[in-house]
Fold Type II secretion system protein GspG C-terminal domain-containing protein.
Amino acid sequence: MKKNSTEYCFSIDANRRAGFTLVEMLIVLAMIGLVAGLTIYNLTGSFESGKINTARNWVNGPGKAAVTTYYLQAGEYPTT
């Protein structure tokens, strides 16, 4: 007996396994790795610029006051 197109279509779907292919998994893992790498790179840059700004603010604020106080008390600037 000859199968009609509907029966043939259902028999193919019944034999096919559900799930992801290896290629699909590799593509998703590559995309996750790319996003994670870019995120880490951007966060590292913001931490470094934050450290620089903190140091700059200390030098212009409390650091400057400490050096000025030392100069007024010792009559000379610190050598180190």
Observations:
- Residues 22-60 form the longest helix (39 residues).
- DSSP finds three helices and no strands in the chain.
- Residues 26 and 32 are 10 Å apart (CA to CA).
- The chain has one domain: 19-74.
